[in-house]
Amino acid sequence: MLNNSVLEQVKRDICDQDMLRPGFHVVAGISGGADSVCLLRILKQLSQEYSLSITAVHVNHMLRGTESDADEAFVAKLCRQWDIPLRVFHADIVKISQSSGLSEEEAGREVRYDYLFQVLRDEYADVIATGHHYEDNAETVMLNILRGCGLEGLTGMDYRSGSIIRPLLGIRRSQIEDYLCSEGISWRTDSTNLSNKYVRNRVRNLLFPSITEHFQSDPARMINRLSALARRDEAYLKDQARKVFSDVSKELSPGISLDADVLCRLDTAISSRIVRMAWEKATGSLKGLESIHVDEIIRLCRESGTGKRLSLPKGWSALLSYGRLILSPAKPAQKKAWSYPVAVPGTVHVEEAKGVLKASVLSRDQFLEKFESGSEIKETSKTQVFDYLKINCGINIRSRRDGDRIRPLRAPGEKKLKKFYIDNKVPAEKRDEIPLVATGSKILWVIGMRTSDEFRPDERTQSFLVLTWNDFNDGGEKNEQTQGTHHKRTVGGKNEGDC
Q1: Nearest to residue 78, comparing CAs of 184, 165, 227?
Q2: pLDDT score for 396
């Protein structure tokens, strides 16, 4: 009844861990070894009960010559016997390892998962099933310990991780082999499993047997218990960090930002997890980010000032900017400069700034009728008024340029636009996004922030230039076909373009 006990335990684990649901299409990785053959057999046995569709995937790593080809032939024959569709891929792991700088173990793992996910997409399948078992998890945790892992590394594998399920994770290797023998099913033995060339094999063949011999203890059982306890605590800490992460993070294009002040106040157990979540969100995976990088990022928030930056893996950087921690590519793509002449009267639709600028000229009587006498337009208002006759040439709406200058309203003198941004704590990464209304290199209006005192109306003003900015999402009409219309129109002898 051994075969029934293994099958029943796997069924319980599948149910408890919500690994399969009726009607699922499962992509199963099969090497030909005992664990993957057992996985495929059990999925076949459960296929009628769960109405499963199964597609097997075999990757020939081309590491063992004719032995690798024999593994492929064995898998193909088994799938024909069990009437399971099979996809076979070939990968020169030695060559991939050399070109990528990865070990053969790491390269083989990455290639296998790449193909498994490819088939998952091709077949519109629901999950990927792998044959990882009880000892595999213990070996993984021990390898993580030897690398100096934190709590997350102690959690090892889980029954379900995203689209990947591991139905055999609670089954011991000896149970798998006894199960296959009782079913009369053969399997392939990888000769490299006996070699201590690979680190995992040294843990399996040397370290674990030595622990058993010298400490009369089953390392797999002890480490799996440690793994379960660590998984419980890690789940709680990650849940707490996730709640904070949603409040302090903002997505950028590209990258992500976090509230650095909040990170400073949090315990490192939570802030470090938030940083890792941000890295994964921004780059697509946790690869590359080590604990030393996380510590440096948190230290940057706690001990540095605005403008300080540190380099991170994958060509990314961390920047502290006015209370925000910004994770982004170290060399962001150069933003394309843009500029459109403003017709007066007229309308300019600016796709780059996602808004519409409307311009009109009013006489003094019209201005006083439209704007109540004595009322003052706030500097942050979407409508601003200028003395049109003080503008000696055409005006443009554009992005910033080197040499731009502004004389802020009520300020003692003129200053460079860059200095204005610094004084007003505008993050460097945001400065290219702010639309400007300019005449030559002089700025009339930093939209949403400040106007120029140089072009301010006074008691002698007779012609009032009224400019109104509306974002597309604030009711501004989005009409790309009209962008650029009226741009060459001449009003009062002024060409509506650059001076």
Answers
A1: 184
A2: 92
The residues of the chain that CATH labels 3.30.465.60 are: 253-329
Whether the Cβ atoms of residue 409 and residue 379 lie closer than 8 Å to each other: yes
The CB-based long-range contact list for 258-264 (8 Å cut-off, 24+ gap) reads 258/324, 258/325, 258/327, 259/323, 259/324, 259/325, 260/301, 260/320, 260/323, 260/324, 260/325, 261/323, 263/298, 263/301, 263/325, 264/301, 264/302
Residues of the chain with CATH 3.50.40: 339-495
Query: d(Cα 56, Cα 148) in Å, to the nearest integer?
Result: 36
Q: Which residues contact 8 (CB under 8 A, 6 or more apart)?
A: none
At residue 216's C-alpha, the angle toward residues 215 and 222, to 5°, is 85
pLDDT digits (tens, 9 = 90+) for 251-287: 987 899 999 999 999 999 999 999 999 999 999 888 8
Written as six digits, the tokens of 171 are 């089954």
The tokens for 225 are 């218990």
Dist. CA 158–CA 141, nearest whole Å: 12
- Phi, psi torsion values for 330, nearest 5 degrees: -60, -35
Fold of 253-329: 3.30.465
The domain 2-224 having CATH identifier 3.90.1150.10: the answer here is: no
The residues near 348 (Cβ < 8 Å, ≥ 6 apart) are 340, 341, 342, 356, 357, 359, 397, 483, 484, 487
User: Which residues make up the CATH 3.40.50.620 domain(s) of the chain?
Assistant: 2-224
Summarize pLDDT for 91-124 with one digit per residue, the tens: 999 999 998 888 888 899 999 999 999 999 999 9
339-495 has which CATH code? Answer: 3.50.40
Q: What is the pLDDT of residue 446?
A: 93
The 10s digit of each residue's pLDDT in 208-260 is 999 999 999 999 999 999 999 999 999 999 999 999 999 999 998 789 999 99
Both tokens assigned to 142? 């021990």
Distance, CA of 449 to CA of 408 (rounded, Å): 10
